[in-house]
Amino acid sequence: MSKLAEVKELTEKGKQKLIAEAVKGALAEGNEATLILDTMIAAMAIVGDKFKRSEIFVPEMLMAAHTMKKGVEVLQPLLASQASVSLGTCIIGTVAGDLHDIGKNLVTLMIESAGFKVIDLGVDVSTDKFIEAINSTPECKIVALSCLLTTTMPALLDTVKGLIDAGLKEKVKIIVGGAPITKAYADEIGAHGYAEDAASAADLAKSIIA
Ligand code: B1M
Question: From the CB of 205, is ligand 1 less than 6 Å away?
Fold first, then answer.
């Protein structure tokens, strides 16, 4: 089995202790870091499908997530490029009620690589916490909101509405993303921008402040 196939299988099976070596092996076989990352993302999609069919349950999904995080740690230095300019600060978080952070962490990595300082508020972030963080960060130019569940889409709506009501839409650009989010939904709730994946989020961050 190729090391890349092994990375996929280990991620799917949640083999946290073995993933780092497999990722290093896949790199040694000449695979690009981005291809290895895409392989792990594809494995997570399979994990999600298995969960949906009740073939696996939350603990297995969690083990796969931990495994992916450990794999990403190995790739991190290769995915992040050192930006020579400072474009400002971006505040990021996953919205209230939502505990998913792998996508948010990738978005953080890519936005940092694009030249922003990123303040990561973590997961399950309330509207008030976003507002407080923006108000205490005068150099904040962007707030990035991640949402992974259809059930937390209303929390995304509430957060954007809260930022607008607090008069912050004129101060910072609001960008949103996550699996259930679409450009149409982002427009509907009043965000400035939407990105489908982490690399597009970094491109969007740069273009939106230009
Ligand atoms: Co959850 N979960 N989960 N889960 N989980 C999903 C999202 C689900 C699709 C699985 C499924 O049923 N097929 C499903 C949601 C269904 C729906 O909403 N209709 C689901 C569910 C139901 C749940 C629970 C409710 C399960 C339960 O308890 N019964 C529960 C909810 C907990 C909560 O949040 N309150 C739950 C829990 C968990 C774990 C904790 C076990 C774990 C998360 C661990 C962690 O993140 N630390 C987990 C996992 C691992 C998943 C799946 C399998 C993988 C998610 C992932 O990390 N993907 C997921 C299935 C799937 O995604 N197909 C699933 C890899 C990651 C790189 O992709 O996060 O999509 P993603 O990020 C992408 C883009 O979305 C985008 O960029 C990234 C790629 O470059 N992006 C942005 C993300 N944020 C962005 C922000 C941007 C721009 C782009 O701009 C600001």
Answer: no
Cα 2 to ligand 1 centroid, rounded to whole Å: 27
**Could you give the strand order of the β-sheet that contains 173-177, starting from the edge strand earlier in sequence?**
116-120, 88-94, 140-146, 173-177, 193-194
- Alpha-carbon gap, residue 131 to 173, rounded angstroms: 13
From the CA of 110, give the closest atom in ligand 1: 80
pTM of the shown model? 0.96
Give me ligand 1 centre to Cα 90, in Å: 22
* Ligand 1 centroid distance, CA of 148 (Å): 5
Listed residues 81, 98, 129: the one ending a domain: 81
User: What CATH number does residue 145 fall under?
Assistant: 3.40.50.280
Choose the final residue of a domain: 81, 109, 124. Answer: 81
Q: Which domain holds residue 113?
A: 89-208
How far is the first Cα of the chain from the last one, in angstroms, to the nearest whole number?
46
Q: Let me know whether 200 and 171 are in one domain.
A: yes
pLDDT digits (tens, 9 = 90+) for 40-89: 999 999 999 999 999 999 999 999 999 999 999 999 999 887 666 789 99
